[in-house]
Design a protein that fits this description.
This protein is of the alpha/beta class. It is built from three helices and five strands; from the N terminus they run ββαβαβαβ. Strands 1-2-3-4-5 form a five-stranded mixed beta sheet. One of its GO terms (molecular function) is anti-sigma factor antagonist activity.
C-alpha cells in the first residue's frame, strides 16, 4: 500500500494545522485571566497562546483559567504551552485551571501525567464562580 491508496480525508494539507487556532483572552475584576482556545493546539498555535498568557500575567493576572472546550486536538507543542503557562503563574504564586477538556486532550494529559500537575476539569463540568 502506498499513500495514493489511502482514502481522502478532510484535512487541509496546505497548512500545518487541520483546524487553525484562535486564542482569546479576558482579564477579570478579581485579577483572574481567562484564555479561550478554539482549534488545534499545536505548533502553529503555541506562539499565540504563550503571548496571551504573557499579556494577562503582565497585566496582573494571579490566576488563569484555560478554556479548552473548543480544542479537539492537542500535541506536544500545545502541552508545552500549558506547562509554560503553569510556570509563569507558579513563579508568581498563582494558579492555573484547565477546563473544558475534551476526549483527545484529556487522554494526552493523562498519558503524559500532566493531569497530576495541572488542575484539570473535563468538558461538561459546571463550576460555580
Amino acid at each position: 500500500m502506498n499513500l495514493d491508496d489511502l482514502p481522502p480525508d478532510d484535512v487541509d494539507h496546505t497548512s500545518f494545522s487541520a483546524r487553525p487556532c484562535v486564542v482569546r483572552t479576558a482579564l477579570e475584576a478579581d485579577l483572574g485571566g481567562v484564555v479561550s482556545v478554539h482549534g488545534d493546539m499545536d505548533m502553529t498555535a503555541a506562539p499565540a497562546f504563550r503571548q496571551a498568557v504573557d499579556r494577562l500575567v503582565d497585566e496582573g493576572a494571579r490566576s488563569l483559567r484555560i478554556d479548552l472546550s473548543g480544542v479537539p486536538f492537542i500535541d506536544s507543542s500545545g502541552l508545552g504551552s500549558l506547562v509554560y503557562g503553569y510556570r509563569r503563574l507558579r513563579d508568581r504564586d498563582g494558579n492555573i485551571v484547565v477546563c473544558g477538556v475534551g476526549p483527545q486532550p484529556a487522554r494526552v494529559l493523562r498519558i503524559t501525567h500532566l493531569d497530576r500537575i495541572l488542575s484539570v476539569e473535563p468538558a461538561g463540568v459546571l463550576r460555580n464562580r
